[in-house]
Amino acid sequence: MSVRKQLPSFILVGATAALVHWCTFTLFVHLGLNPVWVANPCAFFIAFSVSYLGQRNLTFKAGDVPHSKALPRYFLVAVFNFCVNDILLSLCQHYLPLPPEVDMAFILVIVAVLSYLAGRHWAFSRHR
Fold first, then answer.
1. Are 50 and 20 in contact (CB under 8 A)?
2. d(CA 90, CA 85)
3. What DSSP assignment string belongs to 27-95?
4. How far is CA 83 from each of CA 36, 66, 78, rounded to the nearest angstrom?
5. How far is residue 98 from each of residues 34, 43, 68, 94, measured CA to CA in Å?
6. CA–CA separation, 128 vs 107, rounded Å?
7. Is 56 in contact with 62 (CB distance < 8 Å)?
8. Helix or strand or coil: residue 10?
9. Smallest Cα–Cα separation from 6: which of 40, 57, 52?
10. DSSP 2
């Protein structure tokens, strides 16, 4: 399937997962699941399941790729992207005179591209 056909569902699934992450994080904090470094990973895992199932079934149409292969790979992609995000944000904040919101906007685009490429060519690949 072409990138042009996959891109709308990739963006929709990613936005949905981000919204789920934010909503569950907010809910957990309001329910008293503090500190935030406890609430955030809990919300991440819930959002990850939305992202994984959506990207697997909608974007990459990889229902024939076994979960035993795709799930650990996609989880590694997510963890790698989180690390890249954090490292780039730290570097930007240290070396660039921009507000963190501007840095994050650019970083999220970079991470989304990495996520798409890793999902398409590795995590959900039928050939590797």
1. yes
2. 9
3. HHHHTT--SHHHHHHHHHHHHHHHHHHHIIIIIS--TTS-HHHHHHHHHHHHHHHHHHHHHHHHHHHHH
4. 18, 26, 9
5. 30, 28, 42, 10
6. 28
7. yes
8. helix
9. 57
10. -
Q: Which whole number is the average pLDDT over 3-14?
A: 95
d(CA 10, CA 124): 13
The model's pLDDT over 38-89, given as tens digits with 9 standing for 90+, comes to 888 899 999 999 999 999 999 999 999 999 999 999 999 999 999 998 899 8
Instruction: Tally Cβ neighbours within 10 Å of residue 49.
Output: 13
